[in-house]
Design goal:
heterodimer, A: 651 residues, alpha/beta, Rossmann fold, pyruvate-formate lyase- activating enzyme, 2 domains, six-stranded mixed sheet, four-stranded parallel sheet, 21 helices, 33% helix, globular, B: 244 residues, alpha+beta, Alpha-Beta Plaits, two-stranded antiparallel sheet, 6 helices
Chain lengths: 651, 244
C-alpha cells in the first residue's frame, strides 16, 4: 500500500482547518497491513469535527485493531475545499491514520447517523475511485458496508451499500472479517459469492439478495432471492455491556471537535417510550454498565487523555440506577485533582435531576437544557413524554435557585394531533419559565429550540404524514409572534431541511436515484445550512417521476407494506400500531423497566433482558404517569450487582 | 514568588512535521492536556471557569514549523525542571517536544510583549512547486533591500493604513538550497508590528511562494543585548534537553 502524505501535504497549506486531515490523535493506531489481513476503512461521512467523537466508530476501530487478522483506519468527508484540491490533483480519499488511499482497503464501512449525510457517502465512494452503485463494482473493489441508526431503513441507500449491519456492531464486524478474509484467501472470485456469504450473518442485510415488487406507487413485497437469505433481518444486540468496555483508548484529537471530552457510555437502550424517538425504540432493551466499570473507565480515561471533562452518556443518563451515588462518588474522587467537570448530556425534566446537575456543576452554572418536547399536557401524552407542567416548573425553579441563569428547552412541532393551541403552548411554557427565573435573577433567560418533526421508521409514528414546509413555517411564525418581547429566544430548524430529511427517512429503494441526482448536482454536506438547497431535492424527485408529498406528508395505512418491514428492531408491528392508536387517543404508556411488560417484542423474541442495577425507578422517575412504580411484574429484568452496591443508591 | 504565589516557568518547544497544521489554540490545549497527564502541580485562575495559568508567545501561523516556540506556565509549587522537560514531551503529540525550561524571575514581562525579533528559514518556490532560480532570487532580494521603503496597504479596524515593510525586515539573505529550492534566512522585527514571511516574499516578487517555513529563533532585545527568551528573565536554568 502507498502513503499519500507527500502528495497531500502541499495541498493542506491551501485549505481551511488542515488539522482535520493529519490524524496523530492520542490513541490512534498505525496498523501494519499484512497481505492476508482484512483492512477496514471506517468512514464518517461528515467533517472531522463532527465525526471524530462518534463513539460507535471508535469502538469498532479498537475491536478490529485488537484482532490479529484485521487492521482498521479512519477517514472523514473532506470539506469542499480539500475535495476540490484532491480532484484537481487526481488524488483519492485517504485514511487519516497512515494516509493510505481508500480504494486499497478491503472494506469501506460508513457510519450513518443522519439521513442528510447520504449524499456524502456517495461522494466519498466516488472520491475513493469506487463505483457508487453496487452493481458496477468488480471483485477488486472494496466491500461497502454501512451501519448506525439510519441502517434501520436501508432502502434509500440500497443501491450503493453492499451490506448493512443492523444494530450493535461489536460482534458483527468480527464475523464479517472472517467472511472477507476467506474470500480474499480464495482469490476474491465473484462479488456475488462474498455478498451471499455476508447475507447469512445474523444482523447483516445485503440489498442485492432481495427483489422488490411494486404495485403502482406502493410496495408489494421485498423478497429474498435465495433460500439461505433471511426473509427478515433481525438487529444485533450486545446482551451485556460489561463485556465491551470500549473505547479503552478514546481518541484525543489535536484540534477542536464537537463533544471534546471523555465520553463514558453508562447504558445503552431506553424504555421511556417517547413515540417520536427512533433511538429509544431501536436500541432496546436497557443494558446498564456496572457502576464499578463506569468508575474505572472514568478514572483510566481521565488519566490517559488529560481531558478536564467527562460525560456520562446514554439516552437518558439520570435513569441510570443509583446515578446520584455514582455522581457523588466521581465528584469526590476528582476533587483536588485539578478541576475536572462532569456532565450528563441528556437530562430528564424533574427536580431530582436538577439536584444531580447541581452536584456536578458546582461552578460554571451558566446554562441547563431540558426537553419537554410538547407545549401542552395533552400533546405530551400523545408523544408519551409524560412531564407535567409542575415537573418542568419545579425543575426550572430548582435550576434558577441553584444559580443557573439560562434555561434551554427543546420542543418538537408538526407532531401528530397538534393544534395551534399546542404549538402556542410552547411559547406559554417558555414565557412562564422566564417568569420563574426573573424571581431569582433579572438576567434569567430562556431559549426555546424548535425542531420540525420527521417521523422515523420503527416508531409508533412511522405511519404519520409529516407536516409540509408551509405548515411548519406557519407554526414557527405563530411562535415568533407569541414570544415577542417576552425574554424568550426562539431558535428553529429550517423546515426545508426537515422536508428533505423526510424524503430520505421513510423512503424506499426508488429514493436511491434521487440521492444520486442530488449528489451529482453538487449537493454534498446537506446537514450544513450554507450547503443545503431543497430545490435540488425537489428537482431530483420530479426528474425521477416521484411525488415528494406521497413520500413525506402522506399518512400510511395499517395494511401498507413499509419499506423497512423486512428489517426488525424486535418491535412487533402490532405493538407499534397499538401504541400509535394509543397516541391518537392521548394515552401515555409507562416505562417498562419498573412496570409490567407490555410486550413490545424485543426482550421476549430475542431472549434478552433489561440489565439494571435497581428494581425501583429513580426518585422523580415516574414523570407524572401516576403509576405505582413497584417492581416490574412479569418484565424480564436482570439485576446487576444487587447487594454490595445497594447502599450507593441512597434510598 | 515561591509558596503562595507559585513557581513560574518558561518552556521552549518545537513544532515539527505533520503537527505544524494545528493552530496556536490547538497547541495550547495539547499542552494543558499533557500537563494534566503528567500531573504537574498547575496553578489555576480564580472565578467561575478556572483555567490553568499558561500564556503563549507570538502565534505561529498554521502550517509553519518551529524550533523556537515558548510558553510561560505558573505551577503551584516548585518541581525539578528536568521532570518537566523529559515527561511533558512524552505526553505531547509527535513533533512537539520540550527542548528547554527555565524558572522565571519575579514579575517577568509577558512573552508577547518582550519578544522583539524572530528569525525564519523559508524554502522559496514558484506557484505549484515551480523551481526558482537562486541567482535571480539573490538579485530580487538585493533590489528589495536597496529600496528605502516598501509600502504595503492593510485594513486595520476598518481603515486602510499604509505601513512600511522595509523597516520590519532586519536581514534577508539566500543562504542555502534544499530539495525544493533556495532557502532564505529572514529576521523580522515584531514591535510595534510584525509581518509574515509570505508578505515579505510578495514584496520581493509577487510569484514567490513560502513553501516551507521554519521559525528558528525568537529574541528579546534589551539594553543592547540580544537574549534567547529562556535566558532573558531566568532565575535559574537547566541544561539543554533535546527533543526526542
Amino acid at each position: 500500500m502507498s502513503n499519500l502524505w507527500p502528495r497531500i501535504e502541499p495541498l493542506l497549506a491551501r485549505v481551511e482547518k488542515p488539522a482535520r486531515y493529519i490524524g496523530m490523535e492520542r490513541g490512534a493506531a498505525a496498523p501494519a497491513h499484512r497481505p492476508g489481513d482484512v483492512s477496514w476503512l471506517l468512514v464518517y461521512p461528515d467533517t472531522y469535527e463532527v465525526g471524530l467523537p462518534n463513539q460507535g466508530l471508535q469502538i469498532l476501530y479498537e475491536i478490529l485493531n485488537e484482532r490479529d487478522d484485521a487492521a482498521a483506519e479512519r477517514s472523514y468527508a473532506p470539506w469542499v475545499d480539500l475535495e476540490g484540491e484532491l480532484r484537481r490533483h487526481g488524488l483519492p480519499l485517504f485514511s487519516v491514520d497512515t494516509h493510505r488511499p481508500a480504494g486499497e482497503f478491503d472494506v469501506l464501512a460508513f457510519n450513518l447517523s443522519a439521513e442528510l449525510v447520504y449524499t456524502n457517502l456517495l461522494n466519498c465512494l466516488d472520491l475513493a475511485g469506487v463505483p457508487v452503485r453496487s452493481e458496477h463494482r468488480r471483485p477488486d473493489a472494496p466491500v461497502v458496508v454501512a451501519g448506525g441508526h439510519c441502517a434501520f431503513n436501508p432502502e434509500p441507500m440500497a443501491d450503493f451499500v453492499d451490506a448493512f449491519v443492523i444494530g450493535d456492531g461489536e460482534e458483527a464486524v468480527g464475523e464479517m472479517t472472517d467472511v472477507v478474509r476467506e474470500w480474499k484467501r480464495a482469490g476474491r472470485t465473484t462479488r456475488e459469492g462474498v455478498l451471499r456469504e455476508l447475507a447469512t450473518i445474523p444482523g447483516v442485510y445485503v440489498p442485492a439478495m432481495y427483489d422488490v415488487d411494486y404495485d403502482g406507487p406502493f410496495l408489494r413485497e421485498v423478497r429474498p432471492r435465495f433460500d439461505d437469505v433471511p426473509e427478515v433481518v433481525d438487529k444485533r444486540t450486545v446482551a451485556d455491556l460489561a463485556e465491551w468496555p470500549y473505547p479503552k483508548q478514546q481518541l484525543v484529537p489535536l484540534t477542536e471537535v464537537v463533544h471534546d471530552r471523555l465520553n463514558v457510555e453508562i447504558f445503552r437502550g431506553c424504555t421511556r417510550g417517547c413515540r417520536f424517538c427512533q433511538a429509544g425504540m431501536i436500541t432496546r432493551p436497557v443494558r446498564e454498565r456496572p457502576e464499578e466499570q463506569v468508575r474505572t473507565m472514568v478514572q483510566d480515561g481521565l488519566r490517559r487523555t488529560g481531558y478536564d471533562e467527562v460525560a456520562l452518556t446514554s439516552l437518558s443518563s439520570a435513569d441510570f440506577s443509583g446515578i446520584d451515588g455514582l455522581v457523588a462518588g466521581l465528584v469526590n474522587e476528582q476533587e483536588g485533582s485539578g478541576c475536572v467537570s462532569l456532565s450528563l448530556p441528556s437530562l430528564r425534566v424533574d427536580a431530582f435531576t436538577v439536584g444531580i446537575a447541581g452536584e456536578i456543576q458546582k461552578v460554571r452554572r451558566t446554562g441547563l437544557t431540558f426537553a419537554p418536547e410538547g407545549g401542552t399536557w395533552r400533546i405530551r401524552q400523545v408523544l408519551n413524554k409524560l412531564i407535567t407542567e409542575e415537573d418542568l416548573y419545579d425543575a426550572v425553579e430548582g435550576a434558577y435557585w441553584q444559580g443557573w441563569r439560562r434555561v434551554k428547552l427543546y420542543f418538537l412541532t408538526g407532531v401528530p394531533t397538534e393544534m395551534d393551541e399546542d404549538t402556542l403552548g410552547i411559547a406559554e411554557l417558555a414565557r412562564n419559565v422566564v417568569k420563574v427565573g426573573r424571581r431569582y435573577t433579572r438576567q434569567a433567560s430562556c431559549t426555546a429550540s424548535i425542531g420540525g418533526f420527521v417521523p422515523k421508521p420503527h416508531t409508533p409514528f412511522q405511519w404519520f404524514g409529516q407536516n409540509g414546509v408551509d405548515e411548519l413555517e406557519r407554526k414557527v411564525g405563530l411562535l415568533r409572534g407569541a414570544v415577542r418581547k417576552s425574554g424568550v429566544q426562539l431558535r428553529w430548524h429550517d423546515p426545508a431541511a426537515t422536508f428533505a430529511e423526510g424524503i430520505a427517512s421513510r423512503g424506499d429503494r426508488r429514493i436511491g436515484r434521487v440521492i444520486e441526482r442530488v449528489w451529482r448536482d453538487g449537493g454534498t454536506f446537506q446537514e450544513w445550512s450554507e450547503r443545503f438547497d431543497l430545490g435540488r431535492w425537489l428537482g431530483a424527485m420530479a426528474a425521477e417521476g416521484l411525488d415528494a408529498d406521497w413520500y413525506v406528508t402522506r399518512h400510511r395505512t395499517a395494511d401498507e407494506v413499509l419499506p423497512w418491514d423486512h428489517i426488525s428492531a424486535g418491535l412487533h408491528r402490532d405493538f407499534l400500531w397499538q401504541d400509535w392508536q394509543a397516541a391518537l387517543h392521548e394515552h401515555g404508556l409507562p416505562d417498562c423497566r419498573w412496570t409490567p411488560c407490555y410486550d413490545c417484542g424485543v426482550c421476549t423474541d430475542y431472549a434478552l433482558e433489561h440489565v439494571v442495577a435497581s428494581p425501583v425507578a429513580p426518585a422523580g422517575g415516574s414523570q407524572g404517569t401516576g403509576q405505582d412504580l413497584g417492581r416490574g411484574g412479569d418484565t424480564p429484568v436482570a439485576f446487576l450487582g444487587l447487594g454490595e452496591k445497594a447502599g450507593s443508591g441512597a434510598r | 514568588m515561591r509558596g503562595e504565589a507559585g513557581f513560574p516557568v518558561r518552556v521552549r518547544f518545537t513544532k515539527r512535521g505533520k503537527v505544524r497544521f494545528i493552530s496556536h489554540r490547538d497547541v495550547a490545549r495539547a499542552f494543558e492536556r499533557a500537563f494534566r497527564v503528567e500531573q504537574l502541580p498547575l496553578a489555576f485562575t480564580q472565578g467561575f471557569a478556572p483555567r490553568p495559568k499558561v500564556s503563549f508567545g507570538l502565534a505561529l501561523s498554521v502550517g509553519h514549523e518551529s524550533d523556537a516556540e515558548y510558553l510561560d506556565v505558573q505551577l503551584a509549587e516548585e518541581i525539578p525542571l528536568e521532570t518537566l522537560t523529559r515527561h511533558v514531551s512524552e505526553a505531547l503529540p509527535d513533533g512537539i517536544g520540550v527542548t528547554g525550561a527555565a524558572a522565571l524571575a519575579d514579575r517577568a514581562p509577558a512573552l508577547q510583549e518582550s519578544v522583539t525579533a524572530v528569525a525564519y528559514r523559508v524554502t522559496v518556490t514558484g506557484p505549484d512547486d515551480a523551481p526558482v532560480d537562486v541567482g535571480a532570487l539573490r538579485v530580487a532580494v538585493a533590489d528589495a533591500l536597496a529600496k528605502p521603503a516598501i509600502p504595503v496597504t492593510r485594513t486595520r479596524k476598518g481603515h486602510e493604513v499604509t505601513e512600511d515593510l522595509r523597516s520590519i525586515v532586519r536581514t534577508m539573505a539566500v543562504m542555502d538550497t534544499d530539495d525544493l529550492g533556495p532557502v532564505l534566512d529572514l529576521e523580522l522585527s515584531t514591535q510595534p508590528r510584525g509581518t509574515r514571511p509570505a508578505e515579505v516574499l510578495a514584496a520581493v516578487d509577487g510569484d514567490l511562494v513560502d513553501r516551507r517555513v521554519l521559525r528558528t529563533k525568537q529574541l528579546i532585545e534589551r539594553g543592547g543585548a540580544r537574549l534567547e527568551p529562556l535566558e532573558a528573565d531566568a532565575r535559574s536554568r537547566v541544561p539543554e534537553a533535546r527533543a526526542s
